[in-house]
Amino acid sequence: MNILGIDFEDWFHPQLIQRYLDGKKRTPTVINGLDKILDFLRIKNVYATFFVVGELLEYKPEILDKIINQGHEIGFHTMHHTRLDEPNFKEKFQEEIIKFANLTEKRSRGFRAPTFSLNYQSSWAIEMLVNNGYSYDSSIMPVKTSMYGFTNSEIKPYKITSKSLEKNDPEGELIEFPLLVGKLLGRTVPTSGGFYIRFLPLSVIKKSIIEYEKMRIPSTFYIHSWELTPEFMPKISMSIKDRFITYHNLKNTLSRMDELLKKFEFTSFSRYIQKYNL
Ligand SMILES: [Zn+2]
């Protein structure tokens, strides 16, 4: 059994886009694709965890019921998609957790850091999450990329603490679900979704899931709402590199996800935790 998390955010949230926003009005549009994503999951008979950027719930509170009523889980992705290691975010994060709890009737037990920004500068977040009733996190990429990641992290779920981000700490109270990685030409690469499912051959992704299955490790997968509904994603003018990372092959993401969900079993974090008694 594998795990599917959907980072539910709008067009102005991705870090690469934020630097091109200047005066642009931030009116959510990707949010209108929720019904399409829910229909897709229903047809595939798959439950997922939606890591929602909290301000979207303020804008449209009914998205909570829509997600929950279909058996999916709601998780926290900060209120405004702020990096955890941004200066002075610590105090604001505590306020944001409380705000999100109020917006979600205290249902959220899982967290994903925007742009996988959980690192040794922001590891204070772990204790804060535990103190606020959170039971798991999924923000560690077990390979170093230009934007995030760790070289020596565990690949199977483990107990994480602020002193031990990469390895199991028996004293830990938060379960970490590291993202799926695989091999390409002998090198370790993320194969867990997002840009990688659009860029890499799907065979590389499938192979990595099969490798994890052999080791009896769940593949933790992530996909952005705007990748599943690119018709609601406006085209922002950016540098060639940023445009490539953001928009490359968006039109094929849904069909690639469809193929993976056909071949492999996925569920939400909460259902996985319950099933395997973690
Ligand atoms: Zn995000």
UniProtKB/TrEMBL annotation:
The entry's keywords: Carbohydrate metabolism, Glycosidase, Hydrolase, Polysaccharide degradation, Xylan degradation
GO molecular function: hydrolase activity, acting on carbon-nitrogen (but not peptide) bonds; hydrolase activity, acting on glycosyl bonds
Location of the DUF3473 domain: 138-273
UniProt superkingdom: Archaea
Transmembrane segments: none
InterPro entries: DUF3473 (IPR022560), Glyco_hydro/deAcase_b/a-brl (IPR011330), NODB_dom (IPR002509), PuuE_HpPgdA-like (IPR045235)
GO BP of this protein: xylan catabolic process
Boundaries of every NodB homology domain copy: 35-121
Pfam families: DUF3473 (PF11959), Polysacc_deac_1 (PF01522)
Protein's recorded name: Xylanase
